[in-house]
Amino acid sequence: MSDRIPELGDHYPTAATVVTDPILDDLWDDPPGLWGKLKAVQNDAIGKRLILTGFFFLILGGSVDSVVMRMQLAFPNNTLVSAQTYSELFTNHGSVTMFLVILPIFEGFAILMLPLLLGAREMPFPRLGAYSYFTFLMGGLLYYSGTLFSAVPDAGWFAYTPLSGPNFSPDLAIDVWVLGLGVAEVGAIAAAIEIIIGIMKVRAPGMTLARMPLFAWAMLVTAFMILFAFTPLIIGSLLLELDRGFGTQFFNPEAGGSSLLWQHLFWIFGHPEVYIQFLPATGIVSMVIPVFVRRRMVGYPWIVASLVAIGFLSFGLWAHHMFAAGLAPIVLGFFAAASMAIAIPAGIQIFAWVATIWEGKPVWKTPFLFVLGFLFLFVLGGITGVMVASVPFDLQAHDSYFVVAHLHYVLIGGVAFPIFAGVYHWLPKYTGKLLNERLGKWNFWLLFIGVNVTFFPMHIVGLMGMPRRIYTYPEGLGWETYNLISTIGVFIIVAGIAVFIWNLAYSLRRGEVAGNNPWGGDTLEWAVSSPPLQHSWSVPPIVESRHPLWDQTELHRGEDERLVRALSEWPLRWRAALVTGTATGRPEEIFRVANPSIWPFVAAVGTVVIFAAELFKVRWGAFVGAAIVVVGVVLWNRPQTAPITEQEEVEFEERHGIPVRVGGSLQVAKWGMGLIVLFVAIAFASLLLSYFYLMIENPDWPPAGMVLPGLGLPSLAVGLVVISGIAISRARAAMRGDSRAGLLSGAAVATLLMVGAGVVQSSQLGALAFDSKTDAYGSIFYTLAGFILVVAGAAVIMGLLTIYWTWRGEYTARRHAPVDNVVRFWLTAVVVWAIGFGVLYLTPYLT
Amino acid sequence: METLWWLMLALGGAVFLLFLGLLLRGLARGPAGRASERNWLVGGGLVMPLVVITVVLGFTLVAMARLANAPTEDQLIVEVDGHQWWWEVRYPDLGVVTANEIHLPVERPILLRVRSVDVIHSFWIPSLAGKIDLLPDKTNTMSFSASEPGTYRGVCAEFCGLQHAKMRLTAFVTSEEEFDEWARQQAQPATVEASRGGELFLSAACPDCHTVRGTPADGSNGPDLTHLASRTTLAAGTLPNSTEDLSAWVRNPHEFKEGVEMEAAELSEADLADLIAYLESLQ
To answer: What number does CATH give the domain B76-187?
Structure first.
């Protein structure tokens, strides 16, 4: 393999096409018509929808709101909008951009492009992808539905309690915020699970972790961060909604609640959220730079290490949003140091990019311009970021326009510019037409100038003492000129976005034909046609390099050649996809990817019904919604008729050395359940954190004079639960020994025991002397107990389904992936119950 | 604090110029050989930020230690309560209660004790000190002192609802003697003669929320009005304290600060004039 990088006009390897392509197209296409659109699961469709919906919300919430706000602030004492409208505008602007714009755009990029980039045919859980899109869309619409009945959220995108609590925001506006965005958050987590498993398990043979494109690395870290950050937010939102709708006292200081608990839960999400938006952007930058300077990325392992380091560090600096909240000085010192430390992995990435540019020779196309704009703006924003990490300085800058300037440099420079770079870079792959370069340059310069004109003056006016979130300001403070300049700047940005939209429309019709590889790119997506086939790769590629198109002359040569070609031949004439080793990229399994289905849509409708029922206070509706979700999820996961016999599976395995599993991949299923268990664990940990936080904040815990709950019944319940865990483990052992009767009886005994435990536990909860409304102790007690029962309830549903499907004969010693998963979840429920028992019933005796 | 800022600005500026120089040079020159990972990534990416943040963190910790002053003998305790949307300011050792303005003797160590009666606010006088949040469930403290006499502008820095923008306050930093004189005068009950305006004040809804020490009015939801006429602004910096503005405010507060709890007064012109005359007598 030579070091030479091919020039733009050189020959690049292309993906093989095979005679069976039309048949594969039929197999992999989504069905036609409106009904077909609701059933669609293909990554192309889902990815594009996520991106377009994100852009739609950007125009609606990001742009219109900000223009009106800037017009209001153009002059002192301006009365263009009322105080109420202004509160709604900035709340909406922050909430929409943070929840409904950047995240779905990047998850869309990932779902759309990963199969191409990784040399896979499809994401591993296409139905989960469809579910994530519909929940995101419906969550966004539920959120915006507030405008229809004049309940527009107005407590800021951070919704600090007690302002957002029932006493100070009694109308539905905050419920709209909590519940609408809550649905979208569920969607974000679903997509994250899909993305993690896609990257870990569904890659081309030979694509080791060390050969993975950097965008995939960035999305891998991001998706894990989504799981770890959004889950505490969902728990925080749950507690807030319980306070608002059910009279609990989590955030009510007068009844043992804490005003700062919300801030902790919110910023444990909120700060990683910034990096959740930023890391995929760096992934795009690391993909675009090498192509446009014709050099390999310098320091690939350094960049990977930086991404991982940022992922970890970002969870250790949430309290830098709370420097003025009166935390202990030692805590402030720690968070200041942690916040500054993130400059190191960020700095490594920046120098790796500059070094790559230094080595190469730039090709001055629009994607590259946007990357340069990114570097300029992001480094500025990063430097002011280190400044605001310094506690004494932050006590001045915090909640002033200095921070507004800082965060927009980071989010527009650091995130929006790479998105534009990515769109100019990759859109031709999907439309087959290049975007116009001349318009692209106008687009870039207008945005670059506009962003600086708008946001640079905010640094100064912030240092002059202008606080954030004020709808008006008096004259004579020297703020007028800076504000007027900022307002003029925003119109330059609007012009830039208008040019972008015009460029899209123009180029879709008259754009230059792109061809497979218009930029001479190095990664796999440039080997396929533009636009690509629905199933991305008729013959999956075999990867031997980090830059396959620069280093390989053939994409399908190697020891796995027979295997990858067999993927489009009998007996795999169904939606077959390859599972590869997490680190090694060696083929491990062939499994059947789920086909289009209406049930993800149904489950998403059920999800939104649960949240909408709470919003409109039609409480029984939540049960209907939950039932719809259960039905939807069960039906989308129900066993499907196998297209080939077990005998044929065995024959294939003998010929190719790789197992075929039509009944579901053991590997992928294991990862899927692993991530669901992780989700449950994080949610549970967030609740435990809340419990102990409230315990520390309250000198009397449990409140003085309270009769402690008895230990008898809960001990009996936890005993039953532990025995049920043993029973379900024995059922799994029986299944492996091919004993259907053993599986059946083990699952039945375990289910009965779990139900029994639930009945015992509930009977005690119903008879306690305190309830969830008296004080924060009661609130967290019942919420934790409820969480445990819900997890156990999910296990029971899985147990019943296992019994049913075993009785129907769906599981054999060979096809049993779902049973393994049920056991994994079951044991999680047992552990959750045991820990919950210890915290609820035993900790009061420790103090 | 000053040193910290100029240091950070200088270091930040230097880092930015270095980055920009390298980038432009890299763009301008032709393709080069291999860049050394050690120089670029270890030198630029690891060592440089490490040095910069170590220096900044060192100065940060020193500045933090200075902020956390130990209590001193002569410190002046000032208590501030945040309300939607105004400030109650008390000097517990001096028996002074006022609103929306804070008087401080120059160079005297101040111990500020802040708390909120409703939602979270944040106390910020940019030219005197940093921010401190006012929480409903915990008293926060901040120590500082003002080095120059003068008048300083303050604001609420944490979004606290509809009129967050109009929750302002003014700080008056004066000599020790002027401060003592002010405090002595403010600690007095109101000295008012019986008047029609005073009767109107007591018979209307005013005393439900406002206190005028020395009279039966002892409400606590609104600002203490005992020495209203000595203050420079109305409604937390919304209006200057002039006769016209005061009567316009009493006639309809919502015209100037939509959403405040105070209701519009339904008074005849003559009654209003008497009431205003009474309020202006509260020196």
So the answer is: 2.60.40.420
